[in-house]
Amino acid sequence: MAVTVAVVGANGRMGTLVSRIVEEDPELELVASLGSSSPWEEMLAADLVVDVTQPGVTGDVVRFAVEHGRKVLVGTSGWSAERIDELRGSLAASPEAGVIIIPNFSLGSVLATRLSSVAARFYDSIEIIEAHHAGKVDSPSGTAVRTAELMAEARGALGPVAAPHVDQLARGQQVAGIPVHSLRLQGVVARQEVVFGGTGELLSVVHDTISPAAYEKGIRLALAALPAAHGVTVGLESLLDLGSLTS
Prior knowledge:
Structural class: alpha/beta
Radius of gyration: 18 Å
Number of domains: 2
CATH topology of the largest domain: Rossmann fold
CATH class of the largest domain: Alpha Beta
Largest sheet: 6 strands, parallel
CATH superfamily of the largest domain: NAD(P)-binding Rossmann-like Domain
Strand content: 25-35%
Helix content: 25-40%
Number of strands: 11
C-alpha cells in the first residue's frame, strides 16, 4: 500500500517538482496539492506533508501538521538555528513527531557546505556570496544561513571571523557573524561562493545549480526517510554517509 503525501505550496517551483517526483514513485501517492487559498485541513488526507511554501508561512504549516500527527518534510527557507531549536522544544512532548528540514536538496550544495565548514577552522576572513533567481522572495538563502551557522560552529573557540565595517549596509547581512551578500537575478537558478581570505591567498568553495534536476535525488532521499523520522532532522547531510568528510 502506497504512503500518501500532501504537498503544501504545490503551485510553486519546488512544489511542482516535488509533486512530479511523488507521482512517479510507486511507493507514494499524491492525495493533496495545496495552494495559497487551500484550507489546511486538506493536508490531513495524507500520511506525510511536504512544506515548500514561504518563510512567513512555513512555521504555521509545520505546527498544524505536527499537531495533527503528520510527519513533515520542510523544503522552505527561513529556518534559522534559533527557530529550529524552538521547534525541537515544542516536539519534546511528542516522541512520535518527526520533522526533516532540508535547506538545499542538492548533493553538491551539501558537500560544498561541509567543505566550507572544514576550511572555516583555518581562515579568519570569511564571506558568502549567494545568487538565486529573481523570483526568490527571501534573502539570505536558507543554504547561506545554514553554511554560515555550521562554519561558526566549526570555528568554536576560535571566535568570530574578521569582518570589518559591518555597520555599512553594503557589507551584507551578518549571519552567525559572517557577512552574506545576496543576488537576485534573471537567468540564475542558484549559486553560492564561500570566500576565505588568508595571508597571500584566497580560497573559494563554489557550487552552481545548473538545473532544478539537481534537487531530485535529495528530494527522493528525504521522502524515503520521512516515515521513520523522529524529532527534528536538519540538512541532507544528516541522511547521507559522508564518511571521513568531517569538520
